[in-house]
Amino acid sequence: MAPLSNIATRAVETLIHPYTNLAAFRETGPVVIERGKGVWLYSTDGKAYLEGMAGLWCTSLGYGNEELVEAAAAQMRKVAYTHLYTGKSHDAAIELAERLKEMAPVPISKVFFCNSGSEANDTQIKLIWYMNNALGRPKKKKIVSRQKAFHGVGIGSGSLSGLSANHVDFDLPIAGIVHASAPHYYRLAREGESEEDFATRLAQELEEIIIKEGPDTVAAFIAEPLMGAGGVIPPPRTYFEKIMAVCDKYDLYVISDEVICGFGRLGTMFGCEKFNFRPHGMSVAKALSSAYLPIAGVLISEAMYQTMLTESTKLGTFGHGFTYSGHPVAAAVANKTLEIYKRDRILDQIGARIPRFEARVKKLADHPIIGDARSVGLVAGFELAADKKTKRQFDPKKAVGARAVKFAEEEGLIVRPLAGDIVAVCPPFVISMQEIDELFDRLDRAFDKTLDWAKREQLLSA
Ligand SMILES: Cc1ncc(COP(=O)(O)O)c(C=O)c1O
User: Fold this and answer.
1) Which residues, 6 or more positions from 303, have their beta carbon under 8 angstroms from its beta carbon?
2) Bond into 173 cis (ω within 30)
3) How far is Cα 96 from Cα 111, in angstroms, rounded to an integer?
4) What is the pLDDT of residues 236-251, one digit of tens each?
5) Is the dihedral of CA 417, 423, 429, 435 positive or negative?
6) Chain-centroid distance, C-alpha 114
């Protein structure tokens, strides 16, 4: 292994890097990114990378967008910081809440701002508890999430997540969070089971969970419209209609976690619209500001707001909020981002790119190392398999997905490995047709290299 560069050594010796094998990292070090323009990133050693993951599913407008830079600078000049506590407000947050209410696909009464998807979902949990206390049903507090879900890494939001890396040895999940099965058709459907039948079975399972836990103890259900970090998993047909019927029957508050799917990723403004999913509340972040600054929102129904009024009247205050809730600079950047989406008809732009993106995903489905290739809108997942026919998985210890991502990096392409040897692709919305082809040409070559390597390692079925 070549010795680390000076800056890589400094990174290893000073930072804890999230989602990293900290011991292996001491040997490999990081790729240090220096600058970006459009869908391209450049590392300190001068290499260009096509950013196939929009950062962490978030830099929707790509890098170097001067309008966003200007929006931040202008707000900083006007007033760099002011808050929303105890009788203060400001126009950037007011305008942003108005925009979100107008855009939301379901009736939204109010918006609570925070800084990350994790904080948004932690807040959702607290509001559900607060609401049911106000309603005089203090036992109705459990929340149903799903295996493979990703809702963040806070103590509450991390508990909602259904991925073992976020739980094991962090002593999560906390009590009161229940995980239903993932809607992972490729892996979990029975032999010959249709998507509709699989959805019916999952809705039945949800009902069984609620009955087993006690309907008077189950308060809410949370779901990403398409699961992102859990493996780019779209729901089977009719899933949300059937799940919502069960939630209605047992009076569950339903939340759509739109942190990845929101603002056009799936070809609709919000992911829930794509799948006939009508939640009561939503969490948004990431593409809300094209990730130029951290900001997230909790979108609250009128019914929930009424209970918050009751509680804060009883207690004298609504005792929740962050120093940076509705930070004016982040809010100004988010306003500009939403303005650009509207002005530049971002849904039309995304819609024009989807056929090419889908065609290239479909073509890769034939690759010998790909078990399942799936996409919705401008997000795709490639599930690698040791045997295409039997769907046999690779030994997780061989980290085949991570290996494929390394080969992609050699090819100058950034994609992301997810648990289960799934490779995710989620480019900025502004990627050009030619860049889509470039992305998939590079990915194709990375999968070829992965296949050759897997053959050499004798990991494939004969
Ligand atoms: C669906 C979803 N919810 C919540 C989160 C957590 O967001 P954050 O990393 O900003 O806390 C993520 C992050 O990827 C996510 O994908």
Assistant:
1) 280
2) yes
3) 9
4) 999 999 999 999 999 9
5) positive
6) 16
257 CB within 6 A, ligand 1 = yes
Q: Is the CB of 265 under 6 A from ligand 1?
A: no
Beta bridge partners of 266: none
Query: Strands, E, within 313-426: which ranges?
Result: 370-376, 379-384, 413-414, 416-418, 422-425
Task: Please give the structure tokens belonging to residue 310.
Answer: 């009751």
Nearest atom in ligand 1 to 283's CA = 3
Instruction: Give the number of other Cβ atoms within 10 Å of residue 44's Cβ.
Output: 15
Inter-axis angle of helices 346-364 and 328-343, to 10 degrees? 80
C-alpha distances in Å from residue 170, one per residue of 156, 158, 163, 173: 12, 10, 12, 8
In 3D space, the residue among 335, 344, 308, 299 whose CA is nearest the CA of residue 105 turns out to be: 299
pLDDT-flagged residues of the chain (< 50): none
Asked whether 230 and 419 are in contact (CB, 8 A), the reply is: yes
Distance between CA 231 and CA 264 in Å, rounded?
Answer: 19
212 exposed, middle or buried (CB, 10 Å; 0-12, 13-18, 19+)? exposed
Q: Tell me the C-alpha distance between 307 and 93, whole Å.
A: 23
pTM over cut 0.90: yes
**117 CA closest ligand 1 atom index:** 7
Question: Of 281, 136, 209, which Cα lies nearest the Cα of 270?
Answer: 281
Q: For 90-122, write each residue's pLDDT tens digit.
A: 999 999 999 999 999 999 999 999 999 999 999
In this structure, the residue with its CA closest to atom 7 of ligand 1 is 117
229 lines ligand 1 (CB under 6 A): yes
Ligand 1 within 6 A of CB of 231: no
Rounded distance, CA 36 to CA 397, Å?
A: 34
Ligand 1 pocket, 122 CB below 6 A?
A: no
